[in-house]
Amino acid sequence: MKKKSTTVPSQETQTEAMKIAKATQKPGQTKDQTKLIAQGIEKGIALYKKQQKEKNRQADKVRKKQQREKQRQPQESTENEAQMTVETKSTRSNILPWGLLILSWIGFAAATLIEHSFL
């Protein structure tokens, strides 16, 4: 049986998640609800970081493979350099995933608050 590894988010991630949760906090929202939202944001950030690490690993493998091919075939060096530049640019982190993550949690918080206000 595989054990599920539980990684504790860094202090920086926790404080960032709490800031976001407090920024989206609605009047009448309890501290526990805010804490749960912050935990969800932490999980989202952890998942995003994990995905980025995997993308970087894959890009690194491709880059190393291209370097090996480049050493074998020096006359094709300019084509390989152009491809490496394009792939390096595509692996940089983007603000869009972070924005979507924050918006999704704002929506989650709003839906939770609306649901609790009708109870």
What does this structure look like?
The chain has 119 residues and is an all-alpha fold. Helix 2 packs antiparallel against helix 3 and helix 2 packs antiparallel against helix 4. It is elongated and about 70 Å long. The protein is 78% helix and 0% strand. It has one domain. The protein has 4 helices and no strands.
- Runs in which pLDDT lies below 50 for 5 or more consecutive residues are none
Q: What is the beta-strand fraction?
A: under 5%
- What count of helical segments does DSSP give? 4
Ends distance: 42 Å
Question: How many E strands?
Answer: 0
Helix and strand content put the structural class at mainly alpha
Q: Which series of helices and strands comes N to C?
A: HHHH
Task: Please state the overall shape, judged from the principal axes of the Cα atoms.
Answer: elongated
In which range does the helix fraction lie?
over 70%
User: What's the gyration radius in Å?
Assistant: 21 Å
Summarize the biggest pleated sheet.
Answer: none
- The figure for the number of domains is 1
Task: Report the average pLDDT across residues.
Answer: 81
Pfam family, one: DUF2956
Protein name: Membrane protein
Biased composition (Polar residues): 1-16, 80-90
Keywords: Membrane, Transmembrane, Transmembrane helix
